[in-house]
Amino acid sequence: MYFFVTILYRTGIGLYISTMNSDSKSTLIVLALSIAFLLYNLVNLPYTKAYHNYRANVCHFTQFISLFVVMYYRTMLNNESV
Asked: What does the domain layout of the chain look like in residue ranges?
C-alpha cells in the first residue's frame, strides 16, 4: 500500500507541476501535498528496519525544503522587480 501511495504522490506532484507551472499559487498546493505525504510517511513508517525509515524521512524532508525554497523564490519574483 505504501508503494502505491508513493507512486501516486510522485506522479501527482510531477503532473501538477508540469501542467500548472505558470500559476503562482500552484506551489502552495504542491507544498501542502508534500506536507501531507511527509506526515503520512512519519506516521506510517513502512519499513521494518529503522534506518530505512529515517532515510526515507530525510529524503522526503529534503524534498519539502526544496519545494519551500522554490515557493519562496517564485513568490519573490512575482512581487518584486528584478
From this structure: 22-79
